[in-house]
Amino acid sequence: MIATTQLKTTNSEEIFAAAQKLMPGGVSSPVRAFKSVGGKPIVFDRVLGAYIWDVDGNQYTDYVGSWGPAICGHTHPEVIAALHDALNKGTSFGAPCYLENVLAQMVIDAVPSIEMVRFVNSGTEACMAVLRLMRAFTGREKVIKFEGCYHGHADMFLVKAGSGIATLGLPDSPGVPKSVTSNTLTAPFNDLEAVRVLFEQNRDEIAGVIVEPVVGNAGFIPPAAGFLEGLRTITQQHGALLVFDEVMTGFRIAYGGAQEKFGVIPDLTTLGKVIGGGLPVGAYGGRQEIMSMVAPAGSVYQAGTLSGNPLAMTAGIKTLELLQQPGTYEYLDGLTKQLAEGMLEIAKETGHAAWGGHISGMFGFFFNQGPVRNYEDAKKSDLSKFARFHRGMLEHGVYLAPSQFEAGFTSLAHTKADIDRTLEAARAVCFSSI
């Protein structure tokens, strides 16, 4: 790994040194600490469109996009203007707000599985709540998740999880009682036979299956042909629920999410990121008969002081309005295809094994011979090479996710010229730095 940099990073280093005395590891979320790519993290100062600037004045083309929400580009003028208007009315009511109705109707109209929706403050909250709801509706306690899929940091999901767990190489679930995770079953992604076996071994005990329909927290891993359809069939055969965790893919790979893209309709869906337009938000929804069990309509309790706050609702509404404009997803797909295919071609030209791809505005690549169909395949990647590549791209003004095990994102603010410059940087780095 590379611990030095040619970038001017004096201010970033000073701020991070101070942060380490104030916050665990100096960060508020683990991947930001650059542990898997070496060097010190960059401390950012401002964002605009497809670009970010750090506290030392360096500019980068951004392919993290606040980990997905910035699909329209950072600080989109229409989103900011709407937020200014909303801010003048107050930041939080702790009471019903008409804007909740507006965004709820937009979500219901867009996402095939959702007939009713509940807003929360994060994807983690949404996944916690949906797990409780799955168990209450079915009267069963066990749930199946997939190795390398990340559904937030709640205890019951920190079993063979991706995201920061994969990045830092942490044990499965330190600090989590075995009693909490004993009902969490795991299978490899894209392995239907493993799912069938779990259902056979745990007959009438499994509440449902939760899955990232496109994995983004073990790196970008798309579903194999028939995998999502197979999950739908198996869960229906066993009277279990199918949950799509679309916190990352919702409104990102299609306006109606992965379920629209692949034509597979789950029973419940979790959302986040894009529907908040860059503000903290999450949501879960599904069939009315299931969602009617949530308090106060039913007895499944879940609450949140800032849930449905007017600022998050405003940013979400304006973002979804922008995404409804004609050609939005065609533009994202074309741009991201140019980037993803270009990266793989450059790796091949320069003698580096690489595997990857894209769907709409979501992409990823591994320094790995491939194919990468699941988390075990992803772990065969050359992490040291990725670390050198990441640092080299920073040197050339390109900001990628600081982990081999994270997907990347484009936005409507990125241009063909941005992609061309990024590929030029990648070619230079692959030839000289790794």
UniProtKB/TrEMBL annotation:
<keyword id="KW-0149">Chlorophyll biosynthesis</keyword>
<dbReference type="GO" id="GO:0008483">
    <property type="term" value="F:transaminase activity"/>
</dbReference>
<keyword id="KW-0663">Pyridoxal phosphate</keyword>
<dbReference type="GO" id="GO:0042286">
    <property type="term" value="F:glutamate-1-semialdehyde 2,1-aminomutase activity"/>
</dbReference>
<feature type="modified residue" description="N6-(pyridoxal phosphate)lysine">
    <location>
        <position position="273"/>
    </location>
</feature>
<keyword id="KW-0413">Isomerase</keyword>
<dbReference type="GO" id="GO:0015995">
    <property type="term" value="P:chlorophyll biosynthetic process"/>
</dbReference>
<dbReference type="GO" id="GO:0005737">
    <property type="term" value="C:cytoplasm"/>
</dbReference>
<protein>
    <recommendedName>
        <fullName>Glutamate-1-semialdehyde 2,1-aminomutase</fullName>
        <ecNumber>5.4.3.8</ecNumber>
    </recommendedName>
</protein>
<comment type="pathway">
    <text>Porphyrin-containing compound metabolism; protoporphyrin-IX biosynthesis; 5-aminolevulinate from L-glutamyl-tRNA(Glu): step 2/2.</text>
</comment>
<dbReference type="InterPro" id="IPR049704">
    <property type="entry name" value="Aminotrans_3_PPA_site"/>
</dbReference>
<dbReference type="GO" id="GO:0030170">
    <property type="term" value="F:pyridoxal phosphate binding"/>
</dbReference>
<comment type="subunit">
    <text>Homodimer.</text>
</comment>
<keyword id="KW-0627">Porphyrin biosynthesis</keyword>
<dbReference type="InterPro" id="IPR005814">
    <property type="entry name" value="Aminotrans_3"/>
</dbReference>
<dbReference type="Pfam" id="PF00202">
    <property type="entry name" value="Aminotran_3"/>
</dbReference>
<dbReference type="GO" id="GO:0006782">
    <property type="term" value="P:protoporphyrinogen IX biosynthetic process"/>
</dbReference>
<keyword id="KW-0963">Cytoplasm</keyword>
<comment type="similarity">
    <text>Belongs to the class-III pyridoxal-phosphate-dependent aminotransferase family. HemL subfamily.</text>
</comment>
<keyword id="KW-0032">Aminotransferase</keyword>
<dbReference type="InterPro" id="IPR015421">
    <property type="entry name" value="PyrdxlP-dep_Trfase_major"/>
</dbReference>
<dbReference type="InterPro" id="IPR015424">
    <property type="entry name" value="PyrdxlP-dep_Trfase"/>
</dbReference>
<dbReference type="InterPro" id="IPR015422">
    <property type="entry name" value="PyrdxlP-dep_Trfase_small"/>
</dbReference>
<keyword id="KW-0808">Transferase</keyword>
<dbReference type="InterPro" id="IPR004639">
    <property type="entry name" value="4pyrrol_synth_GluAld_NH2Trfase"/>
</dbReference>
